[in-house]
TrEMBL record, chain A:
Keywords of the record: Membrane, Transmembrane, Transmembrane helix
Chain ranges passing through the membrane: 40-59
Native organism: Umezawaea tangerina
Region feature (Disordered): 154-173
Chain intervals with Polar residues compositional bias: 159-173
Lineage top rank: taxon: Bacteria
Protein name, UniProt field: Uncharacterized protein
From TrEMBL, chain B:
Coiled-coil intervals: none
The keyword Transcription regulation is assigned to this record: yes
Domain RNA polymerase sigma factor 70 region 4 type: 104-156
Keywords from the UniProt entry: DNA-binding, Sigma factor, Transcription, Transcription regulation
Molecular functions per Gene Ontology: DNA binding; sigma factor activity
Domain of life from the UniProt record: Bacteria
Descriptive protein name: RNA polymerase sigma-70 factor (Sigma-E family)
Length: 441, 165
């Protein structure tokens, strides 16, 4: 049969690997490696046990370390459970892939993984594993949490520190069903947890704090039922935090589910996702309104003003809008309206009111940005000072104080206006493109 | 970091050579595409574990492992042929009708051969291994390769004639 090679090549031509094949092979290979190491280590442990060596028998060279925790005996009620320790170290080794180290700027690993803590938790066995890694020529302690993945019940690394990311440097984790359980490696000062934030009628943020007991070098705290884990905050504090908590005291966590599914770039707890409610698509970013007179700089720091007024929650900074309405109020002071999205809250309008001498008089929290409306900005100022309205898409604003009633031009050709307090309806646009919007009373 | 470097090497090997290896597996499995993917994945996963201990170029190692794994696999499942005769030879490439029939006939004929004989023919004529290399890959003598090749080609001729009749 001449040409059998050619016939075979013809027959196999076009056969190609499916998408994702390489990833499947790597995952399968790692699983086999874990199982193999498990088997070898268990066999070794059995042999060591038969020969009567103690559990603390050193079977490896111990490199010099800069973090004493790497040399300390394992803490926790499962510290003597060899299977748990072995599972944790095997999972850790499997996790430290080239892409893992590359993403974290780790150029070299030193020594063996060390189980710092292993214990039962309300959501099953868990272990904290540490190992030294070189980052920018400095040895740093990499820390990871091994716990069961609620999706399949298998122990996995569910979170790690990331020395390349300054916002992810704290040794704090979030895991278990619904990512409701928080774990903090003892930072050396007390740890407090707060389930969520509330606001008083003026919009000032309040939180209640509970000290997290640290036992055997680790604090574990579970969010109460009904609390969204994304609203939980953990901080270090000498005493119960009151207010003005410095951001550096925040212990950030990344939900284990996000870590497992999305890897290193998953959002961390408290970091707001990009908010499509933001009124950011106007071509004009700084819209002047009101009569001639003193006005604040349109570049005034809205976030700082909100923070000073205790209207921002502790956590990663939220998103401020890229626009503002500013000008002079009817009383001769200045005004500035902008928006701010804090945590998982809807993006909300805020008005800063200034005295005639330019100093900040008060901060008023308004409604959420009505993103779907032709007039997404509608803020009623206090003390009868009127309405600040703005449109992202329409030019020309008119209003009337009764319905039916005559329309009054407010700002011809403009996207924003300061209207009398008695206004009940606003018309934006012109000609056939006019749209009427009611003002809430 | 040696472990990581090794894993990167392995990943590169999989990316670059999987297509070629899958085609070998496809023929070794008598044209069963799904079985070929399973076979290749299993072999590569085993290679991942052994990667740093594999001496010499990895591709011949992989081809030998595929050939041996396919033979073993068929032995394990010999009582229940895996590939449906009607489906086994379905080509994945459409082309001239005659070419399709010819490819189909080759795959069907391969599927009918004993696994060891099929492996010898695939390694010799698809992967272009010498008799000595084929013998080394399959762990048998050169004489066995010669006889299996001779008998295999003869059987292929008969089978192709039967299939295309």
């Amino acid at each position: 049969m001449n040409g059998i090679g050619a016939a075979m090549r013809d027959a196999a031509e076009g056969v190609d690997v499916r998408a994702g094949f390489t990833g499947d092979v790597l995952r399968g290979g790692r699983r086999r490696q874990v199982r193999r190491r498990n088997g070898i280590a268990l066999a070794l442990a059995a042999v060591v046990g038969v020969l009567g060596f103690g559990a603390g028998m050193a079977m490896r060279d111990v490199p010099p370390v800069s973090d004493e925790r790497l040399l300390a005996a394992t803490k926790g009620d499962l510290a003597d459970d060899r299977e748990v320790l072995l599972t944790a170290t095997v999972a850790w080794r499997a996790e430290l892939t080239p892409s893992w180290t590359r993403d974290r700027g780790v150029t070299e690993l030193r020594g063996e993984p060390h189980v710092y803590w292993a214990s039962t938790t309300p959501v099953g066995d868990a272990a904290v594993v540490m190992q030294e890694g070189k980052v920018r020529e400095q040895w740093r302690t990499l820390v990871g949490l091994v716990a069961r993945d609620p999706a399949d019940g298998f122990p996995k690394v569910v979170g790690t520190t990331n020395p390349e990311d300054p916002t992810a440097g704290t040794e704090s984790f979030q895991f278990g069903p619904g990512d409701r359980t928080f774990l903090v490696v003892d930072p050396g000062i007390p740890v407090y947890a707060s389930p969520n934030a509330t606001r008083n009628p003026a919009g000032v943020v309040r939180r209640t704090w509970h000290e997290v007991p640290v036992v055997d070098g680790v604090g574990v705290w579970t969010a109460p039922d009904g609390v969204a884990p994304s609203t939980v905050r953990l901080v270090t504090s000498i005493g119960p935090p009151i207010s003005d908590i410095p951001a550096e005291r925040l212990l950030t966590t990344r939900p284990a589910s996000a870590y497992l599914r999305s890897g290193v770039h998953a959002k961390r707890n408290g970091a707001p996702a990009y908010d499509t409610r933001m009124w950011n698509n106007t071509s004009r970013k700084q819209l002047r309104v009101g009569p001639d007179g003193p006005a604040p700089s349109p570049d005034s720091d809205l976030f700082q003003a909100l923070e000073d007024a205790h209207m921002t929650d502790i956590g990663p900074p939220g998103n401020t809008g890229t626009w503002c309405v500013y000008g002079t109020s009817g009383t001769g002071g200045g005004l500035l309206v902008g928006e701010y999205a804090d945590g998982d809250e809807p993006s909300t309008l805020f008005a800063l009111l200034f005295r005639a001498d330019g100093t900040l008089d008060r901060v008023q929290r308004g409604p959420a940005v009505d993103f779907g409306s032709p007039l997404p900005v509608r803020v009623r100022l206090p003390d009868g000072q009127g309405w600040v309205v703005a449109s992202s898409q329409y030019l020309g604003i008119a209003y009337r104080t009764s319905d039916p009633g005559d329309w009054q031009e407010a700002q011809t050709g403009s996207q924003a206006a300061l209207l009398p307090d008695a206004a009940v309806q606003v018309r934006v646009g012109s000609g056939t493109g006019e749209v009427v919007v009611d003002l809430p009373r | 970091m040696a472990v990581h470097a090794a894993e990167e090497d392995f990943e590169e090997f999989v990316v670059l050579r999987s297509q070629s290896l899958l085609r070998t597996a496809f023929l070794l499995c008598g044209g069963d595409r799904g079985a070929a993917e399973d076979l290749l994945q299993e072999v590569l996963e085993r290679m991942f574990v052994r990667w740093r201990r594999i001496k010499g170029p990895p591709e011949p190692y992989a081809r030998a492992a595929l050939a041996n794994a396919s033979a073993n696999r068929w032995r394990r499942r010999s009582r229940k042929p895996e590939a449906d005769w009607e489906l086994a030879g379905t080509p994945s490439v459409c082309g001239h009708e005659e070419q399709v029939v010819d490819q189909d006939a080759v795959l069907r004929a391969l599927a009918e051969l004993p696994p060891k004989m099929r492996a010898v023919l695939v390694l010799r004529y698809f992967d272009d291994l010498t008799e000595l290399q084929t013998a080394a890959a399959l762990g048998c003598g050169v004489g066995t390769v010669k006889s299996q090749t001779s008998r295999g080609l003869a059987r292929m001729r008969e089978l192709v004639v039967e299939v295309t009749r």
